[in-house]
Amino acid sequence: MTANGDRAVWPRHLALAILVFAIGGSAFAFGSVELWAQGWLRFTGLLALAVILWTVPAREVFGGRAGRLALPAAGVIACAIVQTIPLPRGVVAAISPRASEIHRATVPPEELSLSEWLLANARDKGETVTGEELPLPRPAAPDDPAIGRSLSIFPHATRQAALSWATPLVFFLLAAWIARSLLARYWLLWSIAWWAGLLGLIAVAQRVAWNGKILWFRPAPGYTDPLGPFVNPTHFAGFVEMGTLVTVGLGLALVSHAHGRLDLSALRSAVLDREWALPRLLAAGSLSILGVTGIVLSRSEGGLVAFGAGLAFLLVGRHMRRVATLLPAGVVCGGLAVGLTRMLGPSLLGMGTEPVMSTQVSASFALRLDSWARTFDIFLDFPVAGTGLATFPWAFAGYRRPGEWATLEETHNDYLQLVSETGVVGLLLLAWGVWIFSRRILGPALADAADRGRWTTLGTTAAVFAMLVHTVVDFNLQTPANAVLFATLLGILTGAVPAARVDPVDR
After folding, report:
1. CA distance 62 to 388
2. DSSP H helix total and E strand total for the chain
3. Which residue among 230, 335, 399, 402 is least crowded, i.e. fewest CB within 10 A of its CB?
4. Is residue 292 within 8 Å of 244, Cβ to Cβ?
5. Cα gap 336→426, rounded to integer Å
6. In contact, 184 and 52? CB cutoff 8 Å
7. Looking at residue 484, what is its pLDDT?
8. In terms of Cα–Cα distance, which of 28, 3, 17 is closest to 52?
9. What region, left, alpha or beta, does residue 479 occupy, with left being phi > 0 and alpha being psi -120 to 50 degrees?
10. Do residues 314 and 249 lie in contact, with contact meaning Cβ atoms separated by under 8 Å?
């Protein structure tokens, strides 16, 4: 073992321990949707990254395939930063006329106080103004100079989103470097399997004996039906579906021959001859059953469909490698294309002249169809730079029909929401990321390699594919715990690709 390898062993082990703890902790911190949990998750990721960079050159962590795949995500963060830069009002009007209109309608000019501006608007609309009409003292200048002068309609939310995007990006780079070690990759996959199985067990216990509180101690909002530590059972299903597919891949690896072939002799060898194979096989089987049970108990239609799609990918992906490499692009294109439901018209979507429940589809799906159509309208109105990352709730409020009172925080389609918030720039970054993943990561990962576990790699790929499918009909990747697990699995897959050379740590 080289001296560099000696120095790399302990940071890899420590970073692995931190990563394993963070993945499970992010789920049990109620999906890490609250600010304190997001801050804790960001701190653990940066801590693990600092441990690695203490002894490993930065080019080894940020370079290679991992660096290439990280660039589109970094581009989204850079796009968000640009969206919050104060610009001359004429520049904002030229790039995003609709954003400029919103600023004029909601932000007073610098030369007027708030009261003067409101009075002037009232007079322009022909409204009768009563009272003394004395202008109030001009308020202090806003702390945010970008208000009214940025491409984002809500620059503060966009800045926070850029920070949120950085967290899974850090976990991706961590996992990609850690997974270069075959042993570390194996332990990381098993830890994900155990976390998913534990969540499945909690789901079973909750359905049997539950006191109405999240994890039996925290009161749940009255309008929710939490499962495990997640308020939204669909997000629970998203986390568990990824972990369960990893578990299935580990189990198949135990009962297959060295080159991935499955038959009775391989099963007999695993049960009778291989050291510790039977206990691991029993663990994988039990964890898989618990995970599937948890997905069923979530009653998430999207989760069940996504898990089925991932399972099919796991079983046939290695036989249809050329087709499999095109599937992620097809899923993303399909996710964007559902926005064309706007062409059906509001009455057919069931949200306009007739009640939602009178449609031929479920109310939930009708709501999604309608939100996708209006999200596509947002993209058409903000085509260049979007409304600003994480500004969807405020943008969508402007597309409500007369008489509608409800609004949406998310559009239940991460692809459409991303392009509505970032415009053509985000669309190009999304296409770039999918191309790099399919060409540089997925294709080589599905190819034969003697020193790579085929079924474990297929299980990881299937988990990634399942989330790509699930996020067409939901917003799993906006839940930090799910985004971090997805990024970690992407990193594991990326780290497994350069298998032609052996990592110095493994020599």
Report:
1. 27
2. 21, 2
3. 402
4. yes
5. 12
6. no
7. 98
8. 17
9. beta
10. yes
**CA–CA separation, 328 and 338 (whole Å):** 16
If you count them, how many residues does the chain have? 507
Q: What is the pLDDT of residue 124?
A: 66
C-alpha torsion sign, points 256, 262, 263, 267: positive
Assess if residue 258 is contained within a domain: yes
Give SS3 for 331.
helix
Q: Are strands 213-214 and 218-219 parallel, antiparallel or unpaired?
A: antiparallel
DSSP for 445-485? HHS--TTS-HHHHHHHHHHHHHHHHHTTSS-GGGSHHHHHH
**Could you tell me the residue range of the domain that residue 213 belongs to?**
3-84+153-336+415-500
Phi, psi of 258 (to 5 degrees): -55, -30
SS3 helix, strand, coil % of the chain, rounded to 5? Answer: 70, 0, 30
Residue 214's H or E segment, with its range, is strand 213-214
Q: What is the pLDDT of residue 505?
A: 38
Q: Residue ranges of the chain with pLDDT lower than 70?
A: 1-8, 110-143, 257-261, 263, 265-266, 272-275, 342-362, 403-406, 448-453, 498-507
Q: pTM for this one?
A: 0.90
CA distance 370 to 406: 13
Residues pairing with 349 in the sheet = none
**Contact present, 417 and 378 (Cβ < 8 Å):** no
- 3-state DSSP of 265-291: HHHHHHHHCCCCHHHHHHHHHHHHHHH
Nearest in space to 389 (alpha carbons), one of 167, 70, 160: 160
pLDDT the model gives residue 170: 97
Tally of domains in the chain: 1
- Which three-class secondary structure state does DSSP give residue 230? strand
CA-CA distance, 304 to 10, in Å (whole number)? 40
Which residue pairs from 42-46 have beta carbons closer than 8 angstroms and sit at least 24 positions apart in sequence? 42/163, 42/166, 42/167, 42/170, 44/18, 45/167, 45/170, 45/171, 45/174, 45/484, 46/170
Q: Residue 70: its pLDDT value, please?
A: 96
Task: Give dist(CA 8, CA 13) in Å, integer.
Answer: 9
Which candidate, 288, 290, 295, places its Cα nearest to that of 233? 295
One-character DSSP codes across 173-185: HHHHHHTTSHHHH
The reply to whether 398 falls in a domain is no
Q: Is-contact 148 103, C-beta < 8 A? A: yes
Beta bridge partners of 256: 262
In 10 A of CB 60, how many CB atoms? 15
Is residue 389 one of the residues assigned to a domain? no
